[in-house]
Amino acid sequence: MSSYPLKVWKTFRREQSEAPNSEEYQPLANDPSAPEPERTGADQQMPKPETRKGDLLAEWAAYVSTTIFLTTTWLMALNSSPSTPFTYHPIFQSLGVSSFAYGILTLQPTSRPRSKAEGLARHQLAMGFGLLCIILGTSAIVANKNINYSDHFVSAHAKLGLSSFVWILFQVIVGVGSVWFDGKLFGGGTKAKSIWKYHRLSGYILFPLLILTSSFGGWSQWAMNHSLFSTRIIAYTLSPFILLISVLFRIRPSKMRFFTTFDSFS
């Protein structure tokens, strides 16, 4: 009798005895019901995104509309009568409003400590520059009225402009007083910080007034004498509207909780 089958059987038994224990070597299970592994500290500290869906599009829409409004106004002013004080009124006022728009946009999405600080610094610079421009532009129109012995604050544009100017001064005082020197003007610390949400709300109410004033200026007699109807539609109706909608879209209502004693600035 051949011994070949016996050798095959012995070889098979030897391989079986050397194979790994099936209970010790199980494939990794992919059980959907199994609990997720605990997150590490690095995963827990991942910062949340500051922007929401649509924020970036709204920001670019605001910048494009502001550029159209600003460029059109400057071209009209420089091509009209640059030797008179009036020329500096639309130049500086449009630059001031554009600077205010940037000051709002640059602070809206901030939520992290570092971006808050950086956004606040840009906000203050933009608002300070905008205030300077508004003062220069207002001084220019007042000087032009005095030179020509014209009545002040007759048109709707002029009345809105005066209201906006006074409101801007109030807004700046509140903003500066609640931040500079640790907010000592309003009691410092938490008391000063509690003013921020009111400053923010006031700014969001003031900004539409500035947009409306600018739009009225774009449809003034001077503007109609130095621009086409289609130009005014684009630069002083559509662009201001898009800018306003873009800014309002990016508002964070959670930043203005009026039923809490403390609210973060951004």
Automatic annotation (TrEMBL):
PROSITE patterns: CYTOCHROME_B561. Residues 14-51 are annotated as: Disordered. InterPro entries: CYB561D1/2 (IPR045150), Cyt_b561/ferric_Rdtase_TM (IPR006593). The keyword Heme applies. GO terms for molecular function: metal ion binding; transmembrane monodehydroascorbate reductase activity. Keywords: Electron transport, Heme, Iron, Membrane, Metal-binding, Transmembrane, Transmembrane helix, Transport. One of its GO terms (cellular component) is membrane. Its main location: membrane. It is found in: Membrane. Its cofactor is heme b. It holds the Pfam family Cytochrom_B561. The chain crosses the membrane at residues 56-76, 88-105, 125-144, 164-181, 201-221, 233-251. Residues 53-254 form the Cytochrome b561 domain. The keyword Cell inner membrane does not apply. It is a multi-pass membrane protein. SMART domains: B561. PANTHER family: CYTOCHROME B561 DOMAIN-CONTAINING PROTEIN, OS05G0565100 PROTEIN. This is Cytochrome b561 domain-containing protein.
